[in-house]
Design brief:
Mean pLDDT: 88
Structural class: alpha+beta
Helix content: 25-40%
Number of strands: 18
Largest sheet: 5 strands, mixed
Radius of gyration: 20 Å
CATH architecture of the largest domain: 2-Layer Sandwich
Low-confidence stretches: none
Shape: flat
CATH topology of the largest domain: Nucleotidyltransferase, domain 5
CATH superfamily of the largest domain: ATPase, nucleotide binding domain
Strand content: 25-35%
Length: 339
């Protein structure tokens, strides 16, 4: 019947598309550049991200998802349509089945909005799965066995902490503190300390280059450029990794609190499994230097970073597509009839 099965990790920062038998075929930022005069999308994905902060007044770059949920329905639909069109390369999208991921803490209304957007973008059927479950499957955790597995998935908009066993989420915590919040904290820190205004892209680069959650080896420095808030002129300064660690301390403390709260609610038998097997980190936030050591120090439990943390959620949807019978019960109840 030429039905295409697609898994979508619809993230606040990035969207990944997995096609059955082909693997991950699209990795694009969740950004759309819109022409305000015509109200139409000018660029989508990487092209849109490249023009952030460099556009004329008539073109604005929009991130249609905020804190893991849809903030702009129409622009999210436009973005999904473009990604799915690329994935199918001209095939009739009317014959595509989609599994799409959502944060565990969303409401029924927010869940319905994701489903409606995918259907409006042209999907024949849409199935929903919770992100921490998809991340755990993608990271290779034994979620269908009677053992406790713990995943901490730190994306762009949300941090998902969950304990899983026998194909279900036993306890979970979803906090809207993640990569975007880390960037905002760096921007605010530099503004307060140096009276220098920097953009989101600069903050993200600082986080990637010298950001850390825990002291490590040699402290690094980085030269950055911005606008002096006192005289309005461009200025160069040098920041250290220790300063960026201070900037990230507050949002990281909220991530640690979410991990501890989840552990406190975990049944004793499963907690014993987690002590033995450790905590697995996934998502882009897992790449922050020293985060595994910080969580280990705060909890006393071994912490491991997934092999490909950025791909875990998309790979999880892919494994579900490849082994539908094994994972069917993990989908939301109203989605199971499609598989």
């Amino acid at each position: 019947m030429f039905i295409k099965d697609i898994g979508i990790d619809l993230g606040t920062a990035n969207t990944l598309v997995y096609m059955k038998t082909k693997g991950i075929i699209i990795r694009e930022p969740s950004v759309v550049a819109v022409n305000t005069k015509t109200e139409k999308a000018r660029y989508v994905g990487q092209e849109a991200k490249d023009v952030i902060g460099r556009t004329p007044g008539s073109i604005i770059a929009v991130r249609p998802l905020k804190d893991g949920v849809i903030a702009d329905y129409d622009i999210t639909t436009t973005m999904l349509q473009e990604f799915i069109r690329k994935a199918l390369q001209g095939s009739a999208f009317a014959k595509a089945r989609v599994i799409i991921c959502i944060p565990s803490g969303v409401t029924a209304v927010e869940r319905k909005a994701v489903k409606d957007v995918a259907e409006k973008a042209g999907a024949k059927t849409v199935s929903i799965i919770e992100e921490p479950m998809a991340a755990a499957i993608g990271a290779g955790l034994p979620v269908d066995e009677p053992n406790g597995s713990m995943i901490v998935d730190i994306g762009g908009g949300t941090c998902e902490v969950a304990v899983l066993s026998l194909g279900g989420i036993v306890t979970s915590r979803s906090v809207r503190v993640a990569g975007d919040e880390f960037d905002s904290s760096i921007i605010n820190f530099i503004k307060k300390k140096y009276n220098l205004l920097i953009g989101e892209r600069t903050a993200e680069n600082i986080k990637i280059e010298i950001g850390s959650a825990y002291p490590y080896g040699t402290e690094e420095t980085m030269a950055i450029k911005g606008r002096n808030l006192l005289n309005g002129l461009p200025e160069n300064i040098t920041v250290t990794s220790a300063e960026i660690r201070d900037a990230l301390a507050e949002p990281l403390s909220r991530v640690i609190a979410a991990v501890k709260e989840t552990l406190e609610k975990t049944p004793p038998e499963l907690a014993a499994d987690i002590i033995d097997q450790g905590i697995t980190l996934a998502g882009g936030g897992a790449l922050l230097k020293g985060l595994d050591r910080l969580i280990n120090k705060e909890t006393g439990i071994p912490v491991y970073v997934a092999e490909y943390p950025l791909d875990c959620v998309a790979e999880g949807t892919g494994k579900m597509l490849e082994h539908v019978d094994k994972y069917r019960d993990i989908l939301y109840e109203d989605s199971r009839k499609y598989y």
